[in-house]
Design a protein that fits this description.
- The protein is of the alpha/beta class.
- Helix 7 links the parallel strand 7 and strand 8.
- Helix 14 crosses helix 15, helix 15 packs parallel to helix 22 and helix 16 packs parallel to helix 22.
Length: 770
């Protein structure tokens, strides 16, 4: 019973391949055996030996130019289903072990092909029925019509001549690739029904080549390699790596490619061909014993028909007998019968594939179930065609969509919602993004503003001088502080307005993420909803911007120098004096090794000695001694009178320069100017920080009240008032043609996946035979 149920697994996978072939895609990696190897290494001949018929194209160069998916069905002791691949078709168990090659009357496949040509495309009912007589060894009698092939691209058409099967493969290949050695990755699916085969699923791929010929592209090697990697990368694929036995195994392209996707060799089987062509005195026993390049599943040696055998039309059955005799009589292979022969390879592949399918079937079932759920969810989103719904029901559907969108939008803002694609698991979503804008973008940018950006010390000196007017003031003028701090506060308005724009864009983004999946059916309704939401948000932006501007105007209207956090003038002066005192003490500290000049003993210590007066002072003193004020008035000094009388002469008149259009202070500020500048800077920084703190707190509150909360609370009323109109409901809920087509496609796919799930469920308790 266990063996019979195990044999059910391969036909189950074959049916799944038919189902997914009907879908046009393969969403699930199905278990199969993939054959790879170098060009002319004997891959196709190995497959023909397994089938027992010559049906693959032959020739020189690259012959296999499209992937051939070959499904083998054993028909011994079982009735053939009228519709192979249907759900109710009976499952077949292999009977290769029961076939007696010596007594099989249909041993010569060439004779069978000749007789079957007359019966091509004839229904099975008109075929000669198998005789009820059974040999003593229970070997089945194979008559013409008991073996046939079917192509997936020709449904319902049976080919009883394997020559016709070969011709159809050539025609189908040329149809996609041309007649001059082009290749294509589109597969050809072929089923072969015979009592001589084991249930298998194999894929024959183009041989790995190095040089392009004919109309092949220059990168033919890369294309073939990519095609092979596409099939063998499937983790559920068994890799059949074919290598000619008369070549060095270390140079095998097939093993190299297989190792790239299966480094441990857990799902790779090595096949050694052309063992009869090895040089005398050499054999492949070391390779067959898995000692050269070890593989977990080992190697199998086979012998294919040579070109002479093909030219002499020697049948594959005769070739298999010759192969058996060769291994039986060869001294090196006589003890390796369990690793030699096509029959051994077929049984090994059948057993491996069955167990591999058994291990993969639970995952396949889970994948199909998951796909069914996704398709059903999409169908639910597509809903019932609106043409079949009454006007009253349409109105209820419209209100339901509007309410669902409004609720989703509100939940997203409040942090209670979730997106359809699960983006909230990977990044910030909804209201959290608005919080990020407030704290990380707006907050950090505002705190990074320097209170003196765009304000230099020269600008402050100029403002102080302008505030003094025509005469220097005794104290720092307060009006200069008022003027400068207003200028710096005004710079905060622009970041606040930009924060509004960022939140507005985020609300627009949020509204698009909150759209129900059902809304995709109605593009007109979706466009109108987007327009309504955008209009509502734009109306909310204007009062928000006005409020932000008013916040700055409020701060500029009254400079509160009595604020408890403001440093004030006295504290600013005290801090400046303390700073200057610290700097002065550092500057007046004596150096570590002072050099003092000795005083001259002859120099008097007192301050009345004339040597302490400069020459100009002495000259001035002499003038005073010679004259004085009274002498000047009454002409006591002649020289003086002459010099004073010369001032009025035109030749000695002093001429003032022109007044410049733009006046600036001197380049080097005085000590007084430096002190005044530092005091003003301390006052500006202190008051700017106070205003910035208030602005940083009020802007998020303003945006939340005027923009976010107002739009969240008003969006449903806005949508209903703008969109729920009796004469527009039918137009808003009109579906497009692609939506109807998508509904039909999803319905068909759901049906096919349902068939696939039923096929998998045909095998019960498959996980109990591990």
């Amino acid at each position: 019973i266990s063996s019979f149920r195990m044999e059910q697994l391969i036909p189950v996978v074959n049916k799944l391949q038919d189902v997914f072939g009907a879908i046009g895609q393969s969403p699930i990696d199905l278990p199969q055996i993939v054959t790879i190897g170098s060009q002319s290494s004997g891959k196709s001949s190995v497959l023909e030996n397994v089938v027992g018929k010559g049906f693959l194209p032959r020739g020189t160069g690259i012959v296999t130019r499209r992937p051939l998916v070959l499904q083998l069905y054993n028909t011994s002791n079982h009735s053939v289903p009228a519709s192979p691949g249907s759900i109710s078709s009976s499952l077949r168990s292999p009977g290769l072990d029961d076939v007696d090659e010596e007594n099989d009357p249909a041993d010569d496949d060439s004779a069978t092909d000749e007789n079957s040509n007359a019966n091509l495309h004839t229904p099975p009912e008109t075929k000669p029925k198998r005789k009820s007589k059974v040999a003593a060894d229970a070997s089945p009698v194979v008559l013409p019509g008991d073996e046939w092939g079917e192509f997936l691209h020709l449904p319902g058409e049976k080919f009883y001549s394997f020559d016709e099967i070969r011709d159809e493969i050539v025609r189908e290949t040329d149809r996609s690739t041309g007649r001059n050695k082009g290749i294509s990755n589109k597969s050809i699916n072929l089923k072969i029904y015979s009592p001589r085969v084991l249930n298998l699923t194999l894929v024959d791929l183009p041989g790995i080549t190095k040089v392009s010929v004919g109309d092949q592209p220059i990168d033919i090697e890369d294309q073939i390699r990519e095609m092979c990697l596409h099939y063998i990368s499937n983790p559920n694929a068994i890799i059949l790596a074919v290598t000619a036995g008369n070549t060095d195994l270390a140079n095998s392209d097939a093993l190299k490619m297989a190792r790239s996707v299966d480094p441990e060799g857990n799902r790779t089987i090595g096949v050694l061909t052309k063992l009869d062509l090895m040089d005398p005195g050499t054999d492949a026993s070391e390779m067959l014993n898995n000692r050269v390049i070890p593989l977990r599943r080992g190697y199998v040696g086979v012998i294919n028909r040579g070109q002479r055998d093909i030219s002499q039309k020697r049948s594959i059955r005769e070739g298999l007998k010759k192969e058996m005799e060769f291994f039986k009589n060869h001294p090196a292979y006589r003890s390796l019968s369990h690793r030699c022969g096509t029959s051994t390879l077929s049984k090994m592949l059948n057993s491996i594939l069955m167990h591999h399918i058994r291990d993969c079937l639970p995952e396949i079932k889970n994948r199909i179930t998951g796909m069914m759920a996704d398709i059903q969810q999409e169908l639910d989103a597509l809903g019932t065609p609106t043409g079949d719904i009454s006007r009253a029901t349409l109105g209820g559907s419209l209100l339901s969509l509007l309410s669902k969108f409004a609720a989703s939008f509100g939940n997203a803002v409040d942090g209670k919602g979730s997106s359809a694609d699960g983006v909230e698991m990977n990044e910030l979503y909804g209201g959290a993004r608005i919080s990020y804008i407030f704290s990380e973008i707006f907050g950090r940018s505002l705190m990074a503003i320097d209170p003196f950006d765009g304000l230099s010390d020269d600008d402050i000196r100029t403002a102080i001088c302008n505030a003094n007017g025509p005469r220097p003031s005794l104290f720092v003028p307060e009006i200069s502080f008022d003027l400068l701090v207003r200028r710096q506060i005004s710079r905060l308005e622009q970041p606040g307005l930009q924060c509004i724009d960022l939140v507005y864009d985020e609300l627009q983004r949020m509204s698009s993420q909150c759209e129900p999946t059902e809304l995709q059916r109605f593009p007109d309704l979706r466009d109108r909803m987007c327009d309504c939401v955008s209009s509502l948000l734009r109306r909310c932006v204007s009062p928000t911007q006005m409020m932000i501007s008013n916040l700055i105007k409020v701060e500029l209207a009254y400079i509160n120098t009595s604020h408890p956090d403001f440093i004030g003038g006295s504290r600013a002066v005290a801090q400046l004096m303390e700073k200057m005192s610290n700097e002065g003490s550092e500057a007046n500290r004596p150096p570590p090794t002072p050099h003092m000049e000795k005083a001259d003993p002859s120099t008097p210590v007192g301050g009345n000695d004339d040597s302490y007066h400069t020459s100009s002072e002495r000259e001035h003193h002499n003038h005073k001694e010679k004259g004085g004020l009274m002498s000047f008035i009454f002409g006591g000094n002649k020289d003086t009178r002459q010099s004073m009388g010369g001032l009025g002469s035109p030749s000695n008149m002093v001429k003032l320069p022109q007044v410049p259009d733009t006046m600036r202070n001197n380049e080097m500020p005085t000590d007084r100017e430096r002190i005044e500048t530092e005091i003003i800077k301390s006052l500006i920084e202190s008051y700017f920080n106070i205003v910035r703190k208030n602005f940083l707190d009020m802007v998020p509150k303003t945006i939340m009240y005027f923009l976010v909360n107002h739009s969240k609370d008003s969006i449903q009323n806005e949508l209903v008032s703008e969109l729920y109109k009796e004469n527009e409901i039918a137009d808003l809920l009109r579906e497009t043609d692609d939506v109807a087509q998508r509904r039909r496609t999803c319905g068909e796919m759901r049906g096919l996946l349902g068939r696939a799930l039923e096929i998998v469920n045909e095998v019960r308790d498959f996980n109990t035979f591990k």
